[in-house]
Amino acid sequence: MLHRALNLPQNPHHSLFLWGPRQTGKSTLLRATYPDAIWIDLLKSEQLSRCFSARLWAGEIV
Fold first, then answer.
1. What's this model's pTM, rounded to 2 decimal places?
2. What pLDDT sits at residue 62?
3. d(CA 60, CA 44)
4. Domain residue spans in the chain?
5. For residue 27, which of 50, 17, 44 has the smallest C-alpha distance?
6. How far is the C-alpha of 29 from the C-alpha of 6, rounded, in Å?
7. CA dihedral 50, 51, 52, 57 (to 10 degrees)
């Protein structure tokens, strides 16, 4: 992996959003930096509706 000039926190207390061009290593960098993180692909509509919609209506997500 290439050394990147991006300094990500080792123990973030909030969610992260990494934005950039396709196929530049964003997911690879995040998976290497946070191997135990929970991953939710918002482009998969069934995962979005299952994980978030029900919880949002139940008032669990603020």
1. 0.57
2. 46
3. 21
4. 1-62
5. 17
6. 10
7. 60
* Cα–Cα distance for residue pair 11/8, rounded to 1 Å: 9
**Amino acid (1-letter code) at residue 43:** L
Q: Are 48 and 42 in contact (CB under 8 A)?
A: yes
As a whole number of Å, the CA-based R_g of the chain is 14
* Token pair for 46: 């069934």
Query: Do residues 18 and 7 lie in contact, with contact meaning Cβ atoms separated by under 8 Å?
Result: no
Contact 6, 29 (CB under 8 A): yes
| Distance, CA of 26 to CA of 24 (rounded, Å) | 6
What is the per-residue pLDDT across 3-61, written as a single tens digit (0 to 9) for each? 767 788 888 887 777 888 989 888 888 888 899 888 777 777 676 666 666 655 555 55
